[in-house]
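Please complete every field before forwarding. Incomplete forms are returned to the sender.

SECTION A: IDENTIFIERS
Entry label: holo-478
Bound molecule: flavin-adenine dinucleotide
Molecule representation: SMILES string

SECTION B: INPUTS
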Amino acid sequence: MKKIVISFSAAAAVILYLIISLFLPETVDVLVIGGGAAGLSAAIEAAEKGADVILLEKMNYLGGNTRRATGGMNAAGTDAQAAAGIEDSIESFFNDTMESGHQMNNEVLVRIMVERSASSVAWLTGFEADLSDVGRLAGHSVSRTHRPRGGAPVGREIVPVLTSKVKALGVDVRTENRATALTSRPGRKGKPAVVTGAYAETNEGREYRIRAKAVVIATGGFGASPELYVRMNPALKGFKTTNHPGANGDYLYLVEGLDAALVDMEFIQTHPTVEPDNGVLITEAIRGNGGILVNSEGWRFTDELGFRDVLSREILAQRAKSANLIFDRNIRDSLTATDTYFALNLISRADKLEDLADLLSINPRGLVEAVARYNSLQAGRGDEDFGRNNLPRSIIDPPFYGIRVAPAVHHCMGGLRINEKTEVLTQSGLPIGGLFAAGEATGGIHAANRLGGNSLTDAVTFGRISGEKAALMAGYTR
Ligand SMILES: Cc1cc2nc3c(=O)[nH]c(=O)nc-3n(C[C@H](O)[C@H](O)[C@H](O)COP(=O)(O)OP(=O)(O)OC[C@H]3O[C@@H](n4cnc5c(N)ncnc54)[C@H](O)[C@@H]3O)c2cc1C
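SECTION C: PREDICTED COMPLEX
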């Protein structure tokens, strides 16, 4: 009898707790949804302004796609560039970004991103992130892509640094907690709705409600949802993806009923060099540091540092609909980011180019001739064949390495329309009350084609702005 009474009162307490947590929401100043570069940066800025912050992350890890970022983060006018004697300018960075985006980018947002890029890098290095190695990714006029020394992957450097800072500031970080809907009230006198918080659900299925003075959506893109990316661009049917499994475009259902405007949803970037069997992205930095692409005849067929959309098209136009990325020991040694591909056994290696060609099932004579021609261009007048603007190393130092690559879905340029304060806008261009967004969940900055290394600059820069503006809305002005 006693046992029954105890279990009855325990069950009653659980039910009471569930009722209270659903109907009596907890309150917070700023609610951040998503724990990648944008969300972590937003949480840090808001907490530093004095706001109480809850950060919801649906996966059991923080970092989203940011954790996978390899090649680096762009910025113009940094200390690391100065130390390496690299001359760069805001204007050059702006022009490269606009050209890559087919001049369809939101110029106001691009200007903010490039002007604050050096400050975003300095902000991260101020938290002890190592971004001292500066290389060049495809489509850039100069070297401005920052990563850890030795060319190590950038995401694995900045996610732990941002996570430590978020925790040190006392942000309430909740992994395995998914935001399921936003709550809102109607705006006054025909104005847009005002967001008042969100519903969340734990992995165990417990639902609860959070009331917030401001909400930041930082849920990333939809590159892991074939259903969405094929709907937005049917030509992507059958494409693999480089994205982490949580990139499902959750912002789309979060803004339902708020009349939020979307922009550039059809612009979905494929990354040209992805290992086709496992979907592992092979960083652009290998080409940036001297690697070349050859087809099944063994021949070069394009400028390896061309924009990603052009390069993806060129690769798919080859007979095999794929290409082979070729590099040597010297290039490998310049980039510890390549260690992962060796550890995964993805790379073929041989001491002679003919043997490497056999391993890759491509024409040995073509490869030998293509590499000899490339080396002579590299030592001479530059790339007279395809106009590549940077040939930093020759390919002469055995062993030689190669891997078959093909394009895969990589980045969603489209998303929520925001203004310079990162406020989410309605279809008629008015800010939705209390709602901010940053990172890959937003659109307009990269337009038709993102420049490699610009996404982290975007996520950190606008993540910081969104955290600052959200804290301001919650009444923190310091
Ligand atoms: C393999 C790879 C390599 C890349 N390399 C580079 C590079 O070198 N340089 C560069 O600039 N860019 C690179 N990118 C792109 C870049 O990493 C991303 O665009 C950027 O990190 C996006 O940051 P974010 O914070 O907006 O999104 P993410 O980092 O994806 O974070 C979003 C987070 O929100 C969470 N989330 C989603 N929905 C919900 C919900 N409903 N509730 C709670 N949480 C939710 C997700 O789980 C995720 O953790 C790369 C991308 C990939 C996939």
